[in-house]
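Batch 3, record 17
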Amino acid sequence: MAAVSQLEKTKTHRHSAVVRVTHWLTFVAFVALLVTGGEIVISHPRFYWGEVGNVNTHPLFVIPIPASRDTVPTGYGYVMPDQNGWSRYLHFEAAWVLLLAGLVYGIYGLWSGHFRKNLIPARRDWKWRAYRDRMAKYMRRERADRAEEGAYNVLQRTAYLVVILVLFPLIIWTGLAMSPSFTSAFPATAALLGGRQSARTIHFFVSWLLVLFLIVHVTMVALSGFWSRMRAMITGYTRDPEEDR
Amino acid sequence: MNPISRRKLIYGSVAAAAGIGGLAVAERLASRYGLIPPDGSGIYGPGETLTYACQRVLTARTPARTFPRSMISKNPFANAVAPPKDEFKRLQAGGFRDWRLVVDGTVARPMSLSLADLKSLPIESQITEVACEEGWSYIAEWIGTPLSNVLREAGVLPHSRYVVYYAIEKSLWGSIDMADAMHPHTYLTLGMNDGDLPVPFGGPLRMRVPRQLGYKSLKYLTHVTVTDDIKKFGSGKGSVDPDYGYSWYAGI
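Prediction for the assembled complex:
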């Protein structure tokens, strides 16, 4: 193994194959879920809290857009085209892709030590000060220091863990809580959230939190070198950091 | 080729072969145990099949969610229905005395039942939620006789797989598998909230499938056909809904 090629010397390994494949599957599934979820919302852009809600009950809030059903009073004089059929088919198919990719990633993450090594913040960073200090560095737009090369800082680690351990599980849970068949087997999935309509409302807000994450994530990727980061997430390798500068 | 890429190639090939082999075996098993829905082909087929197969494994016999009387919606929403045709108006003028429910197909004793005949069967009630695919919902008490009572009277033949049902307007039809058809909460619904079933809510007779979304609970029911071959009906996708782009299985 003495003969290391010239190419390998300038490359740094960043992401394993499982991380890369599940990352892009999740991305494709998420975009499909977002578009189709938006289409489904258009058929009833009113949200409620509790078990039930319909046009005869008081909404928690209303999105001020025209609906794709003439039974929903929106104040607009026209009705949007109905896209719910294919949107629902694709929503659930994409949900399966997301769930299966998430399962593979989760099992791999535990088994390979990926969570422990790359995502759980170091013990010394388990304090607010560590977050504040790293945030201050971002605010001053400081370069990542040597210790952060090839590793995530405490803010990145926390953001990824919140997405992986809180937001995705919550959006899957709230989605299943809207299934009349799934809740027949597991009624607590809906009851614990306060009811079917509460689940729908939480599902809606969690999807916005995931969109917020996506915007920040892509922005940070762009600021830290878009093509270098894309290369790392596609091929697994990034060129020597000095070359990116 | 260096050792690492060769090892990766071997692992990759084994994984791909196992994946394809696994899919083929899964498809065989799903087909054998009736876990592929009638619309389980095409680009959305894998998702529909996964959903339906998992739901059948998990929920074949689980009871629908029921609610206390205090949660019955004060102002339930009936949803829009097409204006009634002349035949419906004629039956309505006669107080629905001539309304018939035809039960046929793969049954030992085909029959034609009046509403009075249905009311002479054991009547039960359930307080369950109607959830529309659009997102809205309401809770009501539904009064009727479980479909399984009628199916038992008619004598469902053992190879039967689906129950197809039609509204008075024959272009509106759907179907459910035997697990849902024999489910104790699947009703031929005659009443709602201690009264007769109002026409806007599907009166005089509505199929009630509380473990699926509202569009499976067909209004103005006139005909139930038991079958072993769902492909013979319409475009073969189990109901009119896939023709409009909506999935056959609406448990989610």
